[in-house]
Amino acid sequence: MSPAKHLRTLEQADFDRLLNWLDPDPERAGEFYEKIRRRLIAILASRGCHTPEELADEAFDRVARRVKDIRETYVGDKAIYFLGVMNNVHHEYLKRPVLPRHVESSDNSETKEEVHSCLDRCLEKLTPHGRQIIEQYYAGQKRTKIDLRKRIAHELGITQSNLRLRALRIRLKLQVCIDNCLET
Amino acid sequence: MSDSVKKNNFTDVSAAVIRDFLLGRLDSAKQARFEERLIVDDQLDLRLRLAEIELADEFVLDRMNRIDRKRFRKTFVVTNERRQMLIVSAGLRERLSKSHATQSKSWNPLSLSLSVLRFNRIAWRVAFGVLVLLAVLASAWLVTKEPELVKRILPKRAPARPAASATPQPAHHPADSTDPMHRETPSPLPAHESTSPNVGASAADSVTLVLSPANKFSEAATVSLPSSPAGVVHFKLVFAAEKAEAFQAEIVTVDGRLVFSTAALEIDGGSIVFDVPGSSLAAGDYQIRLSRPHEGSKQAANYYFRVR
Q: Scanning A9, B58, B104, B130, which has the fewest C-beta atoms within 10 Å of its C-beta?
């Protein structure tokens, strides 16, 4: 068992040191942290890991404990260092015995209720123009939707590709709004 | 990874590769290259987030083939964030499908009339033509057979001016002559009919402002805010770029206060478009800072405008 595994909880001092290493400005450090964490999770999920969030957090814990040894000498993009540590975590994960996978139920009605409530609130915050785009982009059957998109794109004087990007950006804003709503 | 990799053309990662990454279908070499790029490339990360949403929508809207659906369940739905994303996609489909159906069924006189009439059908065209003909004939009959009725309906006309005679004649003007009064009953203004009251923004809801890059406030264009409180200002920034890339736009006041910010903007036909709620702006001078977030927010262009 590696020394890192003996310590089950990350000390606050290590965490603060990690953030400071990422960036002296706490807000930017937090943004960098979230940005790298999200990317590590995406990579681990793509590799077929069933618990990408846990593995990503484990990678962060290891980096946090090593910061005091490397901060003076490390040169280069810090994100690359995280990728390297994540690779080690992943290799160890692959060596673990394969356990039956606990599939999260997607029918958690309480979570759904909360998400739907936040969705309604966030839809109201959209501008009329944004609401129009997303309503007409997502509504209707497949054939109708294709015709609708052509019409909307024509009315707005933009390509269908750009309409798709606009709708996706609005959708992303909705997702961020919902995430913030759920946290409150 | 060296800086040279970061400076590579970021558009060489196709949407298909991103999709394959999300579904866990890349071979080991491509996977490694993609991961090295993703961990340092903000623009690729943004494209990945948009692709995640699109994939979730495809799954919810049942637009995936069986094989992709299986891979999707295996490699995509493994994080809390993505599970939530699916719930949102399903919620959107449910709400917006209902909203679309409601709008389709809502009573809209003009659209209802049009849908009933369906001008593209010959039978209806013929029937409409017959109706118009009957109306014309009925009017002609009314005028010839019921002149008294017509006089009551039509407004009184001013008496015609006397035609000029060939030789001048002395005119007999009464002492108390007055100009004939042209009276007419003002007809009420027709009610404003909106072709689509439930869909689309009226002129009161939005204004469009096209801006070119400038260096100072003296070159600012002027715009009036939409009259509606929920109105929107459509900004169209003229910008020439050599390659496809994402931009960020920030609107600041003359004293540097940030009032609006948006990112992930792309060029379309030589311009960058985005919407700003009218409520975010007040009378005054503004600067729009266009920057490249993937190059450390390097400035791309500045624009100026004034709100009346």
A: A9
| Cut 0.80: pTM above it | no
Nearest to B276 by CA among B255, B294, B258: B258
Kindly report the backbone phi and psi dihedral angles of residue A69, in degrees, each rounded to the nearest multiple of 5, phi listed first.
-90, -25
Distance CA B247, CA B292 (A): 5
In this complex, how many residue pairs, one in chain A and one in chain B, have their CB atoms less than 8 Å apart?
Answer: 148
**CA nearest to B37 within chain A:** A80
> What letter does residue B218 receive in the DSSP assignment?
G
Dihedral sign (CA B272, B273, B277, B279): positive
Across the range B30-36, mean pLDDT stands at: 95
Is A178 at the interface with chain B, CB within 8 A? Answer: yes
Q: Is A100 exposed, middle or buried (0-12, 13-18, 19+ CB in 10 A)?
A: exposed
For residue A79, report the phi and psi dihedrals to the nearest 5 degrees.
-60, -35
* Cβ neighbours of A34 in B, within 8 Å: none
Each residue's pLDDT tens digit, A33-72: 999 999 999 999 999 999 999 999 999 999 999 998 999 8
More confident residue, A27 or B246: A27
Question: What is the number of alpha carbons within 13 Å of residue A166 lying toward its C-beta?
Answer: 27
> Which whole-number Å values give the CA distances from B27 to B6, B32, B78, in the listed order?
22, 9, 20
Task: For tokens 């501008």, name the residue.
Answer: A127
**Nearest-CB residue to A140 (from B24, B100, B206):** B100
What number is the ipTM of this complex? Answer: 0.83
The residue of chain A with its CA nearest to that of B276 is A127
Using the Cα atoms of residue B68, residue B71, residue B72 and residue B75 in order, give the sign of their dihedral.
Answer: negative
Which residues does chain B have within 8 Å of residue A179's beta carbon, measured at their own beta carbons?
A: 81, 84
CB contact (8 A) between residue B268 and residue A159? yes
CA distances from A38 to A34, A60, B190 (A): 6, 12, 58
A147 band by pLDDT with thresholds 50, 70 and 90: low
Q: Find the helix packing angle between B80-105 and B42-60, rounded to 10°.
A: 60
Give the number of other CB atoms < 10 A from CB of residue B291.
Answer: 18
Q: How far is B36 from chain A (nearest CA, A)?
A: 8
Which residues of A are less than 8 Å from B76 in CB distance?
45
